[in-house]
Amino acid sequence: MTKSSAASVKKQASPPGTGREIKPGVVAFKRARILEEASALFFEKGYEAATLEMLADRLSATKPFLYTYFKGKSAILSAICEVGVKESLAALDRMAETERTSIDLLKASLREVAEIIVARHEYLVVYQREMMNLERTDAQRILRLRHEFDLRIGKLIEDCVRDGDVTVPDAAAMSVWIGGLLSWITYCYRPGSKRSAEMVVDQAVEACLRLIAVA
Questions:
Q1: Residue 6 falls within a domain, yes or no?
Q2: Which of 20, 97, 107, 157 is most buried when burial is the number of CB atoms within 10 A of its CB?
């Protein structure tokens, strides 16, 4: 494809009537702001009771503005529900690039994920409450991401078994239990509660390690 034809395709792909493209960084920022306010709204009102008009008011925007970044309310819910697992997978990627022993890598990875769950508390609660409202294809995609997370944690456990730090008969099964335990953080922690975020993260990581008999 020539430069002129590529530029033509790129121009045609731009939203009609804008006359210019929105920079990727701006798009990411505005999508993140929409999700931040939407997660708070769905957390407070519930998905079914919340409306796009309410969300637009919270953002001091209009419904057409929301449709610029999301196809509709269900697409916003889907994006909220996948935030936690996508960020957790990204954290595992970051940890994998560090030089650590297998057991230290497992500990650091669990801590990173626990901190994400605490930081994204409202997002995770919305997912747990509203997963039945997800479109079927969205629910299946998120389940695949969660399965990928379980596989990654299972591999970390297998590496610890290989190095003699852990002895478990079924690393894959234990990874599912660990994923479930981490998800319970949303029931143990509330922003502003007596339990600090640091305390909850410490306790969650310790409980995960005890599942696989790590001292």
A1: no
A2: 157
How far from 83 is each of 1, 25, 142, 153, 158, CA to CA, in Å?
36, 18, 10, 18, 27
What region does 17 belong to: left with phi over 0, alpha with psi -120 to 50, or beta? Answer: left
Q: Can you tell me whether residue 193 is helix, strand or coil?
A: coil
* CA 77/CA 133 separation, integer angstroms: 8
What is the number of domains present in the chain?
1
Query: What average pLDDT does the chain have?
Result: 90
pLDDT confidence of residue 215: 60
Phi-psi region of 195 (alpha: psi -120 to 50; beta: other; left: phi over 0): beta
Question: What is the rounded CA–CA span in Å between residue 208 and residue 136?
Answer: 31
112-142 pLDDT, tens digit per residue, is: 999 999 999 999 999 999 999 999 999 999 9
pLDDT of residue 160: 96
Query: Which of the 8 DSSP states describes residue 97?
Result: T
Task: Annotate 1-29 with three-state secondary structure.
Answer: CCHHHHHHHHHHHCCCCCCCCCCHHHHHH
First to last CA, the chain: 60
What is residue 21's predicted lDDT score, i.e. its pLDDT? Answer: 58
**24 assigned to some structural domain:** no
Amino acid at 185: I
131 vs 143: CA distance, rounded Å: 11
State pLDDT tens for residues 182-196.
999 999 888 888 889
